[in-house]
Fold each of these.
Amino acid sequence: MDVNPLANPKGVKLLCELCRIPAFIQCKGCKVTYYCSREHQKADAVGIHDKVCSRLALLRQPVQFWPSKEEREKRYKAMQLEKIELIEMARTLAQKMLFEGKHEESVPAAMLSLRYAIDVYGVSTIELVPSYLIMAEASIGLGNLVQAEEYLAKADWTILKTPDCTKAIKSRLYRNLGLLYVAKGDFQEALVNFADDIYNSSHEFGTDDIRTSGGYFHMANVFFRQGRRDIADSMYKQVISIWYEYLNHTLTVNISAQEDESRRKSKMLNSAKTLMEEISSGLDEAQEAEAIQILSSIHNIKEHQPDRQSKDLAQTCHNLAMLYFLMGDLNKAKEYGRKSIVASDQVKDDKFSKSLVEFMKLCERQIVSN
Amino acid sequence: MALPTINKRKVSLTQSQRQMRPVIPLEPENPKGLREKLMYRKSVDIMNKLPILRKLDIDKFRNSYKHNLCLDMLTTGFHMSFCELVTLIRQQMERREAAGPESFLWTKPLLQDQRPKLDLLKYYTTKAESANREDNIEEEYTARYELAQSYTHDPDDQWLADHFFSTCLEVARRQDTAESRMLAEGLCNVGVCLQKNHHYREAAKHFESYHKLSLNHEDDWKLQNGVSFYTDSCVKLFAIYTIIGLELGRSVDDNDNEASLQMLIQALEMSKKSQDKKLEGEASYNLGLAYQKVNELDNALTHLYTFYKACQGDSDNEGTGQACDAIAKIYARQGNKEMSVEFLKRFVELTEKTGLEREYCLACYNLGNVCNSVGNYDEATEYFSKAYNISRVLEDPLSTNINRVQYGIAVAHRMMGKFANHVLIGDRLCVTRLLHWKSCKRAEFDQLIPDTDPRAALNILLPPLLTEKDKETDERKEERAEGDESASDDEQHHASAHFVT
């Protein structure tokens, strides 16, 4: 039997945000979140709470009474929207941490998203699946495979019961299943799952979309570990070229947009100075983290591969440089740009080297203007 | 930190335990007798013997054929082939969507539903990809080429053939050596595809590069049937230039006509290079007609004579006939009636000999026309009557009608001189004859009149010369007149009297 602290109003059980046992500590910011111990509070704060503290205070306040039915419905709807937004944010955050390799930190955010998803959509609905998948991925990262399997089984079952679910979700499920099998060491099964991931994602987004590239990357890793280098290399190459295409395109679009802007400004203000103020990669946080993860690990592999093709390495570096440039990290962009130039010395592709030189000039200009 | 479990029950099974755990069917609550116990044991045994289903086994039942095929490709590492397949399927879908559900395309079976085709695609693309990985360009090319070849038979699959031929060309272009047999072959194939899709200009460009490549290897590059690539390229270029030239020739613009001439001249050159007399003749004929169109009759004549000779050398009667006809037309336009008549006579003789009824009819008609315009009415009547009879035998209503009218006109022309004579003299005998003719349509003008006025012949009105161009309109007019019962004109009236007989 649980002991209900006297200080609480009767019938209200204060439970720990993370482990759901009676709680004794309250968050000072929002005053609506409780923890069983300091450790859990700290973990939650690092994971997500710092970012959603004020939002939670708003969401968890006692329901006010509104006299008219319309007003009540309006409030209710507004609340639902707020919750959905919170879910999305928590998921993106968790995903980002996963890509950064911070599995433990991602758990609170994933749990928050799951809890609110259940609140909004109900139990065993397709909308819960992304949260399950994130939890599963975190479990795999933490080495808790049985747990991961539980989550994935749940997600699998939900998807199976929802005939019209989108291929995007399916692809994510298969990617996580693949990761699970990789962790278990069952490479053949992992390959099948990654293949299904690529298949679904190709039909949803296209074969050379950046969202499909993740599947190729994981598959390439499996082939790499199986020792089938040629296949792995060819797949890495495809990943690189997908990203190259995307980043190059985004960069040129950004530059031309900026130039238009500056031309307009210079007409108005008569200042000839061109400045790139706003650059966006067009990716959300999680995707940026994924890009960094994928590209840097390919970079690592290629750097330590003695018989690599120098063009691949150069292109990987160029990709990373562009990515960092778009994210606003100019120093890193320059560093990778230089690496790329070094690597591209042996490449006889004028177009590529020209674009590299142009990119470096752009970097210089940006640094000067900052 | 422990993650919350989904079910409240603590999961304590380790991984290996989980995999080994046998599936146990529910035990009946109180087994009645030995029989039920045995049944239960048996079912447990069966369950344990069942294999653990892997994902692939389940997929076989759950997914479409295409899905499983793609999975198979990917798990074996052929991701490029997979991309290609998906792109092809998507292309087909898009084209179908664009055409709409009422179009012809909509009724065609989709690529993704045709299992043998998918299998074939997979076999060859994966073969090509593994060759690609080993940098074996030749093998990659062969795989793609064979695949493309397998699609050339069905016109519905032309787009697939196009795709694979163009990838063949890309593969061939990757080769280091600038001049390779593969490249030449690739260029030729893509050119043929473009030609089939009516992109003549681009096809011509491809053939030109093919020609250039094969120029240096006239002796060692041979097709399967022993023809050298060089000759083949000449023939292909001749065909494409001719097509472009004729197409340009159809437009009204003067510039286009000029360009058309240029194209046809190029076609002629190519046909000369191919050393095929027949092609050369054909090219000359086309060029001749084009010259005729822009009114350079002398040039036209030279080329047509070449064609004429080529056909005679080949003893190609049909071609010779065509040549005679064309030459005669040009002479007619130049006003050289004698030559025109001569060639037409040759045409008639030829067709008579060879028994080409339709051409014979046409030849007679043309000859009749020329004779008519020269004033040689007796011969004109003769030829028109031949043409009329033949067309009646052929049961071609259009030409029968035309020939009938022409025949009538020719007969009327023949009669006109004497008729006018009778009117001019106007004595009793003549008037009686005229009246007699008017009432019963039987001409007695051929009989001698005692004293003839030589001036009468001057009053004969010759019919206007028929040029090639307005012949059509004339014919139409005449046809209309044929139905006109109340033709007041004596000539016309007389002619119509002949139609009946």
Amino acid sequence: MTPLFSVRGLEKRYGARIGCTGIGFDLWPGEVMGIVGESGSGKSTLLSCLAGHLPPDRGEVIYDGRDVLAMSEPERRMLARTDWAFVHQNPRDGLRMAVSAGGNVGERLMAVGARHYGDIRETATDWLGRVEIASDRIDDRPSAFSGGMQQRLQIARNLVTGPRLVFMDEPTGGLDVSVQARLLDLLRGLVRRMGLSAIIVTHDLAVVRLLADRLMVMKGGECVETGLTDQVLDDPQHAYTQLLVSSVLQV
Amino acid sequence: MNVIELSNVSKTFTLHNQGAAVIPVMSDVTLSVAPGECVGLLGASGAGKSTLMRMIWGNYLAASGRITVAGTDVARAEPREILALRRERMAYVSQFLRVVPRVPTIEVVAEPLLLTGTPEDQARDRAAALLARLRIPERLWQLSPTTFSGGEQQRVNIARGFIRQVPVMLLDEPTASLDAANRETVLSLIGEAKARGTAIVGIFHDEAARDRVCDRMIDMARFAA
């Protein structure tokens, strides 16, 4: 077996300021990695560089043996709508708000060549069911949905084409706690059944404990600690990770 | 051939945010457990019993030494290797149940089997059988265990731990808050696992239980740092 996604010496600067630097890791098929750190630690910059939304200044990003940074724009876009998916914190950034729920899911299918309307609608209905949206809402626009439903719709839109690697930026960020639990359970089930690899950026340690196999802890643009999720959370080695873990309020 | 092998293991905690205090917990731990053998850890609170179990499970890092569990060098393995070990060859019954809030009890118990690719109906049947054996009323199976009593949560944890047949089990006070009948069931489950060749490391404050299932006791005082 070989890694699905490899990153070496990745750096992004904003002028003199460091966005992220010296980042390297291998992600294996079916593995879920969490990136944690406080606001400004560089985790969102890193995710944008990994997903090809932001060009890094230095380093290497290899996906399935292909050099992502050397790809042409059309090649990279093709990758982004076939093998990859990106779940935004704000569902409005990942959905088309003026298009029906079914259209949001169907559009991704059409982008990879599906043309038969009946099949597209059937697949869309199936996916709405998988993310627990009632089939009678298929013709409603996402603007008529609650925040939790919008986020579930964004996940359906992203996963319908059967990606192998999913990037998630604070996927449970804007949701209230009861909705978060439901979404986490849903994501866990989907990741397991589809054998997805995923990179999840979050500041919520409870989220990574439940979803991630391993963690990368970032501070000041650098990775200060990596390891198995429960090892990093239960026996943190770096001063910053110890501070982060001990700062979580107990309920 | 031992399934669990620890040699010269030591553990210290360094608290960087509390004046970089270094707390030595244990040193020179050497321990081996054969298939079908149950080793009980003895020692006062703070002696490092749970810490030792967690190092075997892989969520605590050893400061030095070697920890080999069912063919995996836990002290050096990559995260995915430790996860494969936990998924396929090792189970841990901790004192606390940690679950996603709204997941029904039967699925919480069936999950370890699903992760190894067992078909859903088979996994559920097996979960149902164990929950029944541990006297969790059937009307609770579809509810999340987060609102259950302490004893019920512990039995859900035990069911989850015993649903697979694995070569290595870690048991942290598995009979602590159980009534006599359930305690008896858990002791039989442990006996059956041993008969199948499972190597067990456990903490048992219940002396009678200890005498029934443990082949050997290790006093953590031997490893005091």
Amino acid sequence: MSSPFSINGGACVAMRGKNCVAIACDLRLGLQSLTVSNNFPKIFQYSPTAFLGLTGLATDVSTVSELFRYKVNMYRLREERDIAPKTFAQLVSSSLYERRFGPWFVSPVVAGIDGKSGAPFICGFDSIGCIDYAADFIVSGTASDQLFGTCEGLWEPDLEPDDLFETISQALLNAVDRDALSGWGAHVYIIEKDKVTKRLLKGRQD
Amino acid sequence: MNHDPVAWGRPRDDIYGSYNPSYLPPTRQPYSSHPPSHPTTHTQSPVVTGTSVLALKFSTGVVIAADNLASYGSLARFTDVKRLRPFNRNAIVGFGGDVSDMQYIDRLLLSLVVQENYAGGGESVTLMNARNLHTYLSKVLYKRRTDFNPLWNALLVGGLDEHQKPFLAYADLLGTTYSAPSLATGFGAHLAQPIMRKVVPDEAAAAKLSKEEAVKTIRECMKVLFYRDARSMNEYSLAVVDVRGVELKEDNKLEAESWAFADQIKGYGTQTV
Amino acid sequence: MAALSHHHLSSTAPFAFQQAPPQNHSGEPTQHAFYPYTDNGGSTLGISGKTFTVIAGDTRSTSGYNINTRYAPKLYPIGGQGPTHKGSKIVLSVVGFAADGRALQERLDTVVKMYRYQHGCEISVKACAQRLSHILYNKRFFPYYVQAILGGIDEETGEGALYSYDPVGSYEREYCRAAGAAASLIMPFLDNQVNLKNQYEPAAVSGFDKKQLVPQPLERPQVEELVRDAFTSAVERHIEVGDGLQMMFITKEGIEEVYFPLKKD
């Protein structure tokens, strides 16, 4: 439990649907078993349709999310366009590998829709930037085992946005309820080509 | 107090007299060669060891093999140790692990066979079958691990069960047991099992396999093991158990070895090109 | 230094070190004690219904990354007659250290058979469950390294009865429980699908006034499908789970066994 990845706790999951993607996270921030905050979102937006979820050491979650804000702003200034999710994933990967021998203690998840083609995209990373492309779902955080179970059991191909919302919400809520270090509510983003819906879920408060 | 580095902390013999060991717990091992006043000793790691044992079921019986080497660490110490021990006409045991523990178990088995022979010699009386033998051995092993005094072996029991059908099972120092159409201990689990499982992926395949095919597969596996297991040798015992009884040959030599692949191996720091 | 001159005496002392104790130069901790446990992997689960209980387990046995065998049952009928457990209506599942599991099964089976011999009637699941707890607790300081689940029929109500245990005998009656290597994957799925956790009535008003769905005992076909889904999911994401799925349905008529192949990779 002294692993930097499990001091603060937290969970994040992304899923692919039919012409849409979803990404969700819990809201807990803790110090070992003591809950410090129940409003610590772990999902950050970097373009109209590119999102990043970060679990792991909370200080690194904050720092890395700010680092990417800076990097994506620089990208936008230089390129005069929004960053595509696939490009953003490469940026995340190379930025993490830059710290190969003193890594950020985070497990990132990228979810988004390509601005031009409208293709849904999700991927996950280890803490040193190895990309895990997936056609179904990506999980991360202290509840990752539980999330693997619920996602593998509930997810199916080509879900419509509403059904995808229900699936990812149930997968997350039931997973974090079996993890002592995650929970206390959730944020869920449903990302379509021209629309992003953010919902706040009230989960168990224990 | 004795300050001798090899007896530090003990009462000095010149002052207190030599230590009276009669207060020590008596040795419990029935076959122990220690005088009873010595402390109980447990095997905490194996000393002279045998490597893999392989076995395969076929339509009417079981083939089992193990090489004749007993190693002392990395030293090939004894080259004529027979690690397949026939029990009766129904069963045979293959031993991996500590050789002295093997010899102890062998004495247990001998006393069982003697009892069985006193009870009628096997013609009129139902003989113990391979399943009975495996159950017995696994209970001995489990009891010893529970007493923190393990018998440091992994064994395969092969032969015929109560219905004269092929039987093959594993047991080890922890009391772990399992059964499968093909089994291997030690390195064999890594190197030989993949080859054997190609031949007998399941019980149905084993029920169709001929004795000749099974023997051929086992011989091939022994060769692979000799190529890659540094604690193996090219002389081995091989036994076939079926309704005709145990047919054991203890001086098999590896045939048609091919070291042609050896000069293709590059790396490991010894070659520069 | 006087003591050192008595060196020769030490060679006769029963405890003298004839050899110096092994020195460890590698910097790694020296391993000396025999470790009496191992983990044989696999997973089990149990669900109780209105008139039945199902206990399920995969049939793979592992040690480390090796597959020992593809068929090693973790489900044991308890009691009944003879070595085939004819007429038994209690099933024990054990996952963890298989040798301890086997020993535990034999202990409980003997106890249940002795109960019938002494009392002339079958033991109740409730009593059997408590006895199992005691057997486990009796080895509190050298535990059976297993997670056990016991299933049967509650003879007072005729409903399915399911009990789950920790290795030292702490136990509880539940409607559903997953155990073993993939328990953390399966359990939240079961919470959701069996106990309807986090599910609310769709027709009710939105917001905080939504009503939690009340779990109802499931029918057998639904349960069988859930068990298969739970295991095929676990097989995808856990390397120690696979090869085959064994299910035992316990009803007032007895035990019905179902086998279903799983992926062997």
Amino acid sequence: MTNKDIYITGGRVIDPSRNFDQKADLLLSGGLIAQVEKNLQPPLGALKIEANGLIVTPGLIDMHVHLRDPGQEYKEDIISGSLAAAAGGFTAVAAMANTDPVCDNSSVVRYVCDHAARAAVRVYPIGAVTRGLEGKEMAEIGRMKQAGAVAFSDDGKPVVSGMMMRNALQYASGIGALIIVHEEDPSLFAGGMMNEGAVSSVIGLRGISPQAEEVMLARDLLLLKTTGGRLHIAHLSTAGSVELVRRAKSEGLPVTAEVTPHHLLLTDRAVKNTAYSTNTKVNPPLRSEQDRRALWEGLLDGTIDTIASDHAPHHPDDKDVEFDFAPFGIAGLETTLPLLLDEVASGRVKNLTLPLLIDKLSLAPARILDVPGGTLQPGSAADVTIIDPKRITTVTPAAWYSKSRNTPFAGRQLTGAPVWTIVGGKLVMKEGAPAGSVEQG
Amino acid sequence: MQTLRRKDILGLEEMSAEEITLILDTARSMREILQRKIKKVPTLRGRSVLNLFYEPSTRTKASFELAQKYMSADSVSVAGSSSSLVKGETLKDTVRNVEVMGVECVIMRHPVSGSSHYLARSIEASVINAGDGMHEHPTQGLLDMFTIWEKKGHLEELKVAIVGDIRHSRVARSNIWGLTKMGAEVVVAGPPTLMPLDMEGLGVKAYHRVEEAVEGADVVMALRLQKERQESGLFPSLREYADLYGLTPQRIAGAREDALIMHPGPMNRGVEISSELADGSRSVILKQVTGGVAVRMALLYLLLGGAKEE
Amino acid sequence: MALIHKATVMDEKAIRQALRRIAHEIIEHNKGIDNVVLVGVRKRGVPLAERLQVLLKEIESIDIPIGILDITLYRDDLSQRQDQPMVHTTDVPFDINGRQVVMVDDVLYTGRTTRAAMDALIDLGRPASIQLAVLIDRGHRELPVRADYVGKNVPTSRSEEVEVKVREIDGQDQVDILGPGGE
């Protein structure tokens, strides 16, 4: 079945790849962006999307999600995760390797690619850096890259051995592979449950020192000076980490970094204010107000390149236990964009503009992962997200497409939401509902 | 105030000075019952209580059980093991099962901070926190305050020095909250590795030298030192701890002459406190234990004695 | 519904006379007071018991022991009351075993307070007898209880309240009947 052409008219088009920000019409045809022009003639037979008052952007990319497939499909699977992504305004996601079995060989990479073919959005596999995420032997990075892996990471775990990390960076540089690191020194992490600070002192949860992240990050940045290769730092959480990355970038090191919406919006006080809700248990932990402000600064000054959800879905039963026994993680695919749009709408963060936000969510991750997207240049893939900046929604986990419900943002009223998601010229989401119903209805 | 308008007792941080005063006043009336030949009142006949202890406890468990018996409540005690919790039935399921058998109040000790908050929002029955991880041990805090109050006649303006492993101590946290709310000055002392990283949230002054902390103190409280803290590298040895931080008459010479000596038990004699102090005339360590039963009777009455809130 | 004052049934003088009469009756009934102890039931039974103690001393020149009973923990209506009563201390600093115990209260009404007070007393020991002295008996018993010494019998309806004021607590001695307002 060939898709109808799609004609999007009257919207504010923001294309960070060309610094384009004005009212224009778009025509999508044959899975590609055909035309972007003012006052485009409506073509015959095209599906018309009235976008007056809406924002039209390149499809958004979430470069850090956990889809739990294969192995933990009761938490999430590639299909449910992709529907959640579509509902959240994303046209592509990169899925981490800590599945069961671990995505540490080309067979599992191909498994993900095969399932991704039936998914609502583009799903890019990320391969493991080491076999079984054990940090001992290097995984077959080259073969996985050939099979379709877009990056390599032991995310969920750090690469503890300095030598292992050095070898991985060196080896990856030879084949142009990107390494993504989860920075955490296990001895400093020390069984912690939340940020170490005034709040953990009061409520008696074992603390995770900011140094647990910073020590490991400093090591990897030092290694990067001699190894070559590209390094991407997952989920920065501390002011010290921002400073380390800022300095590394000023020295010209090939490093990029991401931040999650929850680290931008919440602090460790959330653990106390929710009386130990396990939905605030996440790794890296929610940090102090000072850290939170530093993360925004880093995002605005370009130290932090992209925002990724670190979507970590868990079954409600997994989280419905005592704090120490609950797994770490916040599910974010369906909240990331509305939360960030709400920050723009509220004006709480000085200098946070819609074009900047769109850049961080589209062009930046496309460049880091070296995947298509991030642009509305005619001839490129017709991945488009359409946003209503005024729409008011309430975070309602029970209505999610994700199988998970774990969010500390439930009940928040937010201004700004995605309303259409188009992947390869195909409508996958309209008004928060998956596209099947749109096309049939 | 004569009624405690709350379902649960989870910590002293969330309690007001008025509530604490009501509990202490009620405990004083309960203490009279403990002096009778027949230590029993019919107040809580037909009320059922579950004691759920996921950590070993002698004193607290015995104290709660006696309080229940003296108040004529029916009670059942279950010893859980937290390791089986991870694998087997969840805490929520365990307690819900007992709840439908008619239990109206659950007393829980649990190794995980915040688990009493979690339980309280998972069930309709009242929850009394008998110690959750490193968070709070509110009934211990209350009985310590009760003991001081009975001896000194007031809590305002008193200087209380708490010495030892503040960082891992739920007893210290409850005492700090309770005593400061009641107008006392609390200072803490111990090796830096056993102090919380950030004392700002607790609002007390910290010292590294015990001698400085106890200067002019009306109360000196030692905390139990756990051997496992040595194993995790926080201090070198029990004997070094005793030499540098153990409470002895010489070390606390700067405290007031009539200073009360307290310890929540169980004591490591010769480590955090010398026998000379623990058994001396200023020691109220055994008074703390009696006070504990009275305080727990008071809490049971205040939580269960009245009609159920609609 | 607000209650309004309907009648004053005892004034300071009447109360004084009633207590004096009760003191004599106690002596007569027990053939002397060598073995008698007084126990006031909180709250207004306590000052009344203290006054009886003074009167008995005036007459017999004997200081008889006096105790205070708080019956809160023995009430049978705790689980029905939204306004949970405060527990006060029971203070009976003597052995009641084998003694003639005279319990003193302000008003005898349903008899439930007296039942609770007897239970509370018996938990303290085994008296030779328990007697009850009240300033007012207003009728409407719900339990088989009667007073041994009554200051005044006051017929009332259930919709009325008897308000006893004593100098030590309320600043004056007076007993009033309050009733619903209007017709």
